Predict the structure.
Amino acid sequence: MSGAYLLITPSFLFIIIFLFALWTLFVFSFRESLGMGQIKPGFTFLQYARFFKDPHYLGYLTKSLWLTTLSTLICILFGYPTAYVMVRKGKWFRQLITIFLVINLFSMYVVRVYSLMVVLGNNGIIVRSLNFLDVIQTPIKLMYNEIGVIIGLFIGSVPFMVFPICSALDNVTEDQVEAALSLGANRIKTFFAVTFPLSLPGVASGILLSFSWSLSSYVAPALLGGGFSEMMANFIYDQAIGLLNFPMASASAFILLFITIFIIFLINKVFGHFIRGIVVK
C-alpha cells in the first residue's frame, strides 16, 4: 500500500501546485495594481470592470473568439474528410496519415510556426511558386494578418480534430452501412442518415479540443500575426510581463477561462441534443 502512495505522490503534488497557482491568480484578479509589479491589498472588481468597459481590451477577446471559430470550422472541413478516408481506405493509408499527424502533434510548436513563416512569408515557398507560375503579379500577404494566424491555429489543432473523429468512425460498422443501402438509400443518404450521426460524439470531442487549444494559443498570433492580430494569450502576456500589471493579467486569464468553460458547456448541450438516442456499439 505504501508503494502505491509513493507512485501517486508526484501527481498529487502537481495538482496541489496547480491549484495553488490558480488560486493565487484568482486572488490577484481582485486586487489593484500600483505599477511596477506592486499590488494594492484589498478586494475590488476594478480589473473586471475595466476590461469589459475598454473597447481595446474587448477587441482582444472578440478577435480571439473570431479567429478560433474560423480555425475550428476549417479543422472540421479538412479533419472530417481526412478521418473518413483514414478509416475507409485501408490500414497502410491510415498509418501514413497517423504518423504525419503524430509528428505534427509532438514536434515543438515553436519550430512548426517558424517553418510556417518560411512557407508563408513574402519570399516564401507559396508566394515564389505562384510568382513562378504567373498566377499572381504582386506578392500576396499570408503573414502578419488574420490569414497567417488562422493557418497557424489550424496546423496546430487539426490533430485534435482528426483523431476523435477517427475513433468515432471506427464504431460505425459496415453492417450498419450495408443495412441502409439494402433499404434503398444511396451512398450520400447513408452517410447523412447513418455515418455522420453516429460520428457526432467524435465531432463534438474534436471541436472541444481544437477550440480550447486555439483559444489559448500564444505562439501563432505572436509570430504569424506579427503584432497585428494578437489574441487573449498575447494580451495576458503583455500585461504580466511587459507592464507588470499582474491584477489585470490575472483577471483577463480568468475571463478567458470562464468564457472557455461556458462555450464548452454550450457545445456539450448542443451536441448532447443531437446525440441523444444515438447508441454506438
Notes: The beta strands are 32-35, 38-40.
